[in-house]
Amino acid sequence: MLHCRDGARFPLDVMFGIQAKKFNLGFIRPENLVSHGLRVFREMCLQRWGFCNIAVLGSEHGKQTWKSYFLRRSHLELKMTKGRSGGDYTCKSLRGHTGRVVGCVYLSGNSPQLPDFWSSTPTVCSSSSDGTVRAWDVQQGVQLWCSPVQSPLTGMVADGGHGGVITSDSTGLLKAWDGQSGQEMFFYSSASPQCTLLPYSLEGSSFLSVGTSQGSVHTLTSPSLSKLSTLVVCDTFKVNLLLASPDKKWILAGTTENMDMSPKVLSSQSVTCPSEEEDPLCQCLPVSGCSAAAFLPSQPARLATVHCKDNSHSNTHHNKVLSVFDVIIKKTRFKTEIQVEQVEKFELVFEGRASDILLEGKGSSTLVVAAHRELKVYTVKGELLCSFKDHTEPICSICVDSFRVVTASRDLSLRVLTWKTDRDKGLTLESRYHLLGGSHSMSRGFSYVVCDYSTIVASVEAVDGKDVLKAYSFNS
């Protein structure tokens, strides 16, 4: 049986007949499904998921792959939409850390771009103040390896180009770890007790930018961790705002600790291939007191920032503004410079302290904003598409992808919301269900969440200081 979006259920032959009529292919009888399957299933896949990997599915895998892909992905997305415990997903507790979890990233995940995504085995890596890095099989809930104990760790990122991770510790030491074996490969001393890490690839090479407590950004090769350049961004204040544009041409660097300072847009080319004769290209944004920022995934040179209202440096909810900028390079005969043009601006109003705002972009014109217990979706022009108050405690982390939004809260729950297209409003969200994290007597709430296509992994802050990861795997 297959389900329609309105909840109706049809036998396979009826469902395919409906689809065939929709695509003007004529009614396909069950005995003719094999001969007509390639076209039917391809059309059904592309109509429902315009971003599915045509090149892979349409090559040597043949028509059976289109059928398997459509049936399995439809089945999986139905379960990810319903979220019924006991049938739609399994939950594993990943235990082993004896300290606070300070980072969690996917070493390998599953993606709908792969024709056999259902057969992949996601693995995550976690780092902790207990001084260890651990790798986990998400579906089985078992530990794959654990690093030797070292100084308390403060952060971690995935080195996607080489399948490993890079960590920072309380002494400022950065280390690159092999994702398969857990072996330490390279190290670098930043002399900063707090580091913000940003991995990215540019023109086939991998790099790591490191924001330090002293206000500078170090750019290193990855995973070898050899220093290429250093740029002072916000002298004496910690660089804790560091992100790259989708095409990796731009880096935004700044601090959220000083309301008078403006973040800077850097050319990644100029910090990864520095010139001895010229300073790296950078430009300040014409706003101060930035508390959150995000690039638009489908508009790589478009940047959204949440910042203080003009001439107001208070942290109350009445003083926050969201501005959208376009970043361009302007070249003249004698000079090349970055220019930042403001294209949109609107006020944000939330309950609670707006300094705790989380911001993510979706597509070319949608912004997801979370603050305190609220989640809101805006267009870049400031139109409020939808808002939600599903949590009883503040939202501390969000994860946004092409299918859903997941919010993690101090109330020890995850809220799953899925994207839908509304006839009047266009792209919007629909709130679906909660995933619970355990007992309030043992836990203080969720602290962080990460997702791939069919799994969700979140960190639970434990009362006894021994944080636990909760891994939710949806059954395909």
From TrEMBL:
Keyword terms, alphabetized: Repeat, WD repeat
A Pfam family annotated for this UniProt entry: WD40
Domain of life (superkingdom): Eukaryota
Classification via InterPro entries: Quinoprotein_ADH-like_sf, WD40/YVTN_repeat-like_dom_sf, WD40_rpt, WDR55/POC1
Protein name: Si:ch73-142c19.1
Organism: Oncorhynchus mykiss
